[in-house]
Design goal:
homodimer; 580 residues; mainly alpha; 3 domains; six-stranded mixed sheet; two-stranded antiparallel sheet; elongated
């Protein structure tokens, strides 16, 4: 009973072994993560087009719910860059930024996403995420990084630029360049420069100064907090907001509010497809982080339970003033490196953020939006990596095409169209490849019982016996192709009396392909040629036995191609010795 | 030069051999087909929601254009039942039946369909039609037959029923039952009964009366003409139209008009998807008829040239007052049986219909719509055939699911949704089947060099050597599955020192799968287990050589599984003799 329950509530499993050591480790990790998350949460809320507190709220209830239902010990759930961008894109289509409708639509998006994830998890459909291939994800994240960085440039310049794709954004930025606010630009550019230096230069410096690498790493991660503190102080002290520097302003002080997502059918209809997309992308991002971290400690991640954990987190966000969340890469790695041992570390982080939202919000009144934009830009540019283009180009052009399409469409037509085109193109290219299967004419490798392609190997053949190895499962898309191929090959060689289809690579024969085989058998019989099969696999043979095909077959089914050769070839007469 | 031209203009090929014998055979066939086509064309125009003359016009220019560009010698192009239904469904969504806009939209649909088909043909993309599997087509035609027959019942009853799916239609018919026009019903019901009797009873009767079967068959085919003549005469003589019997009324007398399809962007946008659907369904129907007939005379059909022929026919329909056309089954079979030898028979049929539209239209003023509905009902009910459900159920459940979905969705949500769901479900089920591939653990069949599944055959195995035969191409959808499977299998058997992946059924390895193989190799190396491959196919090996995988591989690549066994197994030491 407890075992069954603990499948759906992993907390019952690790909760039993909780002790003081685990507690102190989790606590240290939580403090570090909390400090890192405060500026990050504010920044991602800005990216999603929501008020800053939404980012904090989206990190509290979701973390706790994931701690209860999730299977990863180190995953930190909350707002992440790509999902924030997707949220802005989806919600921007149904409501104006800054209105109450916008915030409600973000809640609805989180609710739909949570409901969808929990449903997938309960139906054990986690494998569906495999449709998003790794090259497509890599391309998508790179393109998103570029889009996000570009979208934040307006905050660095202090202008009102906008646009739905890279060209529009860049064009709008250039058009608004003359209106650049110089003070904002100084703050934003210094923050970007500082954060890049912290990332690349500070850590080696600290290590040379004698700090341990891990501590140096932690301190470097606190860079954004320093940037936030310094720019807020300067802006407040000098009253820079009067010079046109946009600041965060008043952030409500208090517990996350109880909120109700909008469930009007029209709103749900408009947000359903984006919610599904956000769910799948979020899930794929989250599970790859979770598995990377779990592998390091030889722990196990259950993809279906992860769906439930992330779904619960999103439902939590929907009812506490948040927006769609998932497991983030940066925050999870920090959590893991800081020594988090159980999901309780997440719960402590949530408490830290709760305290922040109760007491710290007045302190960020003067925080410039340019600083937040700088933290986003520096974070996402580390995601940009075009090496996947080079790798796939060298290996397989179809994969390259899928990556290139994902990147170009994401940049040119937005994130939703980008992912959709990557997935659809991957599937179509896969089908295209199987539509014209490789069919090799094979012969016997001398001195063995092994048969290989006559064009690649020096093999023995018999002019009256044609053996074709079909290198693909037979199904509706390629069934007619095989039919045409066999008949054309026979028209070329009128001496052929026996045709063997070697089925070692045929893993399935669907009904359309069965009809094609029946047709081949009939046509060959009319020409006085017998059709045989060899090396038919067990599951395929079981299926063929359920049809009339085997009764009508003019020839035989041989267990091995060697047996077919012995029965049908003239060359088989002199006894051949196997090698070895 | 002429050869190249005759690829695109098959008329240059058969035209050179034309003589008096061919002419007289073609002429006889043309007369028979013309007589059959007159009522059929009128009826299908009614089904498409167009005035009756549109059906005649759609049979004239298209037939001539197909004769010039098409490759089938016997295919008769013109309005057919399913395409007429699809036209009514598509055009009904953009214009009111009976308006000028409706007719123009039908022309636009023909134009778009023609342009799409010609484009596919020039790009040699005929293979795309293979995505419509045979079971899906069979299910779709059966469901369409039911929908069409139901939609015509209102004309038999003389009521105004309507509806977009089977339930709505049936409900509306029942609701309107009290308003049935008794005279119309008598005419309609008698016509249906007569036509069924002609089809089932007349032919045997005529044969028993001493007629030759072929002549008896031809006479039976003229049944609709008799029904049209008798009911028109009776209605006209008794003035039944005054009693509420709906008649065809005035049909313009003259040559087909020159018409211009509407090309407003909005209209084109609304009709593009239906036009693509109509094109593909029409093409698949047409090519299967053409290939069936060509096979009987050992002639060849070129699918890409067929696309051009059908495309030209539709463009012709668009500019001469017609609507979308394709090669019809019934008319083509009649043409073939009547002895048509070349596409010239089609041209003569066009002339016959031209004469009919010049001189015969006043004679059908009193033709009751109920008679036309009766000819449609009897024609389409012969298309209804549920046996595909039984056949696919017995053979393969995935095919059954695709057929059942096609039938149910077509009946419940209309023809377009029906075909789309059939195609999409076929593709998804195919992907699902390849997502969790069959992986068999294999051992040596004693006395051979052949390896088979340990669960199905009595084979020799080695506890330190695990050989897995992967029965599917490896690609993004199943890459992770293989990774998990291998690691789980190893966790069960700690004695294993060598793992061989037997790749005889792996026809492709995409980039995601390459990464999975690299991961498997890395993980096994950590456990001190070596990974080997065997029977890797030529194209797959070429691809792997372009990556670093083979350099990193902890084990070897063996030409055959037998070679792997000899190198790695303890049992291989005593020399084994091959059978035979």
């Amino acid at each position: 009973m407890l075992r069954r329950l603990s499948r759906y509530l992993p907390i019952l499993e690790w909760g039993r072994h909780y002790n003081r050591d685990t507690f102190s480790n989790d606590m240290v990790a939580a403090i570090i993560v909390t400090i890192m998350l405060i500026p990050q949460s504010l920044a991602y809320a800005l990216l999603a087009g929501l008020p800053p507190e939404a980012g904090i709220y989206a990190s509290i209830a979701p973390i706790v719910l994931y701690a209860i239902f999730g299977t990863s010990r180190a995953l930190a759930v909350g707002p992440v860059a790509v999902v924030s961008l997707l949220t802005a894109s989806a919600v921007g289509q149904v409501a104006e930024q800054g209105t109450a409708g916008y915030a409600v639509a973000a809640l609805t998006l989180a609710f739909l996403s949570g409901a969808f994830l929990v449903t997938l998890g309960l139906l054990r459909l986690g494998w569906l995420a495999n449709f998003l291939s790794h090259p497509v994800i890599a391309g998508f994240i790179t393109a998103s990084g570029i889009l996000i960085a570009t979208s934040q440039m307006k905050h660095i310049l202090g202008v009102e630029a906008q646009g739905h794709n890279l060209l529009e954004m860049a064009g709008s930025l250039i058009a608004h360049l003359p209106q650049t606010n110089p003070v904002t630009f100084v703050i934003g550019a210094s923050a970007v420069a500082f954060l890049f230096w912290v990332r690349k230069g500070l850590k080696p410096l600290l290590i040379r100064a004698g700090l341990k690498p891990r501590l140096a790493d932690m301190l470097a991660k606190a860079g954004p907090v320093a940037a936030v503190a310094v720019t807020t102080l300067v802006t407040g002290a000098l009253g820079l907001d009067a010079l046109g520097v946009k600041i965060v302003g008043e952030v409500p002080q208090g517990l996350p509010p109880l909120t109700m997502p909008g469930l009007a059918p029209e709103l749900v209809g408009q947000l359903l497809v984006p919610a599904i997309l956000i769910s799948i992308i979020g899930f794929v991002e989250s599970i790859s982080v979770a598995e990377t971290l779990a592998a390091k400690k030889r722990q196990r991640i259950d993809p279906d339970q992860e769906l439930i954990g992330l779904g619960a987190a999103n439902l939590g966000a929907a009812f506490t003033g948040g927006y769609p969340v998932t497991g983030g890469f940066a925050r999870s790695v920090v959590n893991f490196d800081a020594g988090a041992e159980t999901p309780a570390a997440g719960a402590f982080t949530a408490m830290g953020l709760l305290l922040a939202s109760l007491f710290l919000t007045p302190l960020i009144f003067y925080l410039p939006k340019a600083t937040l934009a700088a933290t986003i830009i520096v974070a996402v540019l580390s995601l940009v990596d075009f090496s996947i283009l080079k790798k796939t180009w060298g290996y397989r052009r179809a994969d390259f095409a899928a990556v290139a399409a994902t990147i170009l469409v994401t940049l040119g037509a937005g994130v939703e169209a980008g992912v959709a085109s990557g997935v659809i193109l991957s599937i179509l290219l896969h089908l295209y490849n199987t539509a014209r299967p490789h069919v090799a004419e094979v012969g016997l490798v001398p001195g063995t019982q092994h048969f290989r392609n006559i064009r690649r190997h020096d093999v023995i053949t018999d002019p009256e016996l044609l053996t074709l190895r079909v290198d693909e499962s037979l199904y509706f898309v390629n069934a007619r192709f095989l039919e045409e191929m066999v008949l054309e090959r026979l028209a070329e060689s009128p001496r052929i009396r026996n045709v063997v289809l070697m089925m070692s690579a045929v893993n399935d024969i669907d009904y359309s392909a069965l009809e094609a085989l029946e047709e081949i058998n009939r046509r060959l019989a009319e020409m006085g040629v017998r059709l045989h099969l060899s090396e038919v696999k067990g599951p395929v043979m079981d299926r063929l036995k359920r049809s009339h095909f085997l009764d009508e077959l003019s020839g035989k089914v041989f267990l091995s191609q060697w047996a077919a050769w012995q029965a049908l070839s003239r060359h088989a007469r002199p006894p051949l010795r196997a090698a070895g």
